[in-house]
């Protein structure tokens, strides 16, 4: 029970940006590693992360106690973090996204009247790669 109180205290001390950043991080982990979780873990985490269900609401929806919902979500998060520590797919995804964005920005800066067609051609080739990562500025 002390662990639950410690997490609640830590969460309450987090700024709004930090909470959003943590939710984004967990969502990205879920996108990559969610299929490796059990069906019950996937359901608990999905309701909590994407449907914004409280622990009580998750428990009620799945016919388990609030504590069981918490334990399930906590184990799921730890499992995904362990997968990331071993495989590093999220870190790789973020690194590649940043690199493609930088390349696209540098190519755009090269555009001049004499090479506009070639620059546009390169950017067209980058688009399919960039689209894998969402909008690239």
**How many strands, which pairing sense, and closed or not: the largest β-sheet?**
none
CATH architecture of the largest domain: Orthogonal Bundle
Helix amount:
over 70%
Q: Work out the strand percent.
A: under 5%
Question: How many alpha or pi helices?
Answer: 7
CATH superfamily of the largest domain: Winged helix-like DNA-binding domain superfamily/Winged helix DNA-binding domain
Radius of gyration: 20 Å
- Strand tally, please? 0
Judging from the principal axes of the Cα atoms, what is the shape?
elongated
CATH class type of the largest domain: Mainly Alpha
Order of helices and strands: HHHHHHH
How far apart are the termini? Answer: 45 Å
Low-confidence stretches: 1-6
CATH level-3 fold name of the largest domain: Arc Repressor Mutant, subunit A
Mean model confidence by pLDDT: 85
Q: Any idea how many domains?
A: 2
Structural class: mainly alpha
Provide structural commentary.
This protein folds into 2 domains: 2-87, Winged helix-like DNA-binding domain superfamily/Winged helix DNA-binding domain (Arc Repressor Mutant, subunit A); 91-131. Helix content is 80%, strand content 0%. The chain has 7 helices and no strands. It has helices spanning 2-13, 16-33, 39-50, 55-62, 66-87, 89-110, 116-131. The longest helix is centred in the middle third of the chain and has 22 residues, at 66-87. Mean pLDDT is 85; it is low at 1-6.
